[in-house]
Amino acid sequence: MPGRQQTVPPLIHMNNSATLYVSEAKIHPREVDGRFDKLRTISTIVLLGIYYLTPWLRWDSRQAVLFDLPARRFYIFDLTFWPQDFFFMAWLLVIAGVSLFFFTALAGRVWCGYACPQTVWTNAFVWIERMVEGNRSKRIKLDKAPWSTTKLLRKGTKQAMWISFALWTGFTFVGYFTPILELAREVVTFSLGGWEVFWVLFYSFATYGNAGIMREQVCKYMCPYARFQSAMFDRDSLIVSYDTYRGEPRGSRKRGTPREATELGDCIDCTLCVQVCPTGIDIRDGLQYECIACAACVDACDGVMDKMGYPRGLVRYTTENALEGRPSRILRPRTAIYGLLLIALVVGLTTALATRSALRLDVLRDRNALYRELGGDQIENVYTLRVTNKTETDREIAVDVEGLPGLTLDPEAARFDAAAGELTTVAARVRADGAAAAAGGHDIRFTIRFAADPDVTATSESRFFLPLD
Length: 469
Prior knowledge:
Shape: elongated
Strand content: 15-25%
Largest sheet: 5 strands, antiparallel
Structural class: alpha+beta
Helix content: 40-55%
Radius of gyration: 33 Å
Distance between the termini: 97 Å
C-alpha cells in the first residue's frame, strides 16, 4: 500500500541457501525456591520412588507387581488378572481420561506440572545437570566456553550419569514384565535375551532423549494434550496468570521503593519468571499452550515481591473471572458432571474388583437342533459350557443344573478339570422327562463351583426346549 512500509521477517541463510527452520535455543531453567518448588520436588521423589522400588516388592513368594506376558498372568499385589479381565484395564483407562478432564477443568495443567512422566524424569535429569555443571549462570558460561579439560570432564560426567540413570530406568521398566531378580541375574551373567536387551535399550534411549535432550520440546511440539487443553478450560479454571492490572506498567526501581512513590505497577521487569520457566515462556504475555502450570514463575515472583515489600500474588494460580473482579465458581456444571462421573466409575471399578469371582461361566445352546427325543419320554438339549478358571492352580469343576423336574446332566460334563487361567470348553447334554413339564421353552440355570471350594460359584441361565404337542 502507498505510504505504508511492510516488514517481512528475514529468512535464515545457511550455506547460501534459504530455510525457514530456526533451531531452538537451549533453555537453562534458573533455580527457584518456594512452596510450589517443594511440592514439585516431593511429587518427583514420590513418583520416582514408586516406579523404581515397586518391582522389588515381594508378595507371597513372588514379585508383587508383575505383568507376565508369556504366562498371560498379571499380578498386582493380591490380585491376579488374566486376558479375560481386559475390560478392567479399559475401565481404568476411562477413569484416567475422565480424571484428566476433571482436574484440567478444575485446575488447568496440574498433571503436566507435577505428575506427567515427561516432567518427572526431566526434573531428575535437570537435577543431575545442576549437580555436575552448577547453577544457571555456570551452565550457560560452560556451554559458551571453548572445549577444555574441565569442560570435557564436566560434560562427560553429566553424560555418563544421564546414560546410567536412563539404563537403570530401562532395566526397571523391563523388570515389570520379566521378574526383576531373574533379570538382574541375567544382567550380571551377561545372559540377557534378545528381546530383553532391545526393550532395556529402547526405553533407556527414549528416557535419555525425551528427558535429557528434548525436554521442553516434547511438551511444546509432541504432546497432544497441549493442543486440545483449551477445550477443557473455562473462565473458572485455575491457571497460572499474571495480574496485568496490578503489574503494568512494569519497570525497574530500587529495592524498598514504596508502591505509592512511583507511577509504575508492581512488576519490576526482573524477568526472573522467564528465567525459571522450564519451557522458556513469558507468563506476562498471557496464557500460552507451552505453559505446564508448574508454578515456578509463581515462586520466583513471590520471592521478588517479598524483597520489594509488595504483596505476593502478582503471578499466581487464579481464574480469568477472578482477575477481572468477578466471582469464581469451583462447582459448576462441567466440574459437577466430571466429578460425579468419576466417582461413579471409581466406585463401580472398586465394587467389580471386590466382588470379582474366580470362576466365569458362559453357556451356549447347540444351534443345530432345539432338542432330541430319546426313549422313555426323555428329551435332550445340548449346550456348550465355557468355563474360565481365574486362579493360579488347576481346579476340578462341579456342575449342577436346575429349573425343571428331573433334569440330569451327563457325567462327562458334571465333573471336569479346568486349567489355571484357561478357558475350558465342555459339551453338556441335559435330559428331562418330557411328560413332567409343559411343552415349549423353559428357563434353566447352570451353576459351577470348585469341587474343593464349593463357596466359589458362577451361574448362567439358558433355555430348555420340550417338543410341542
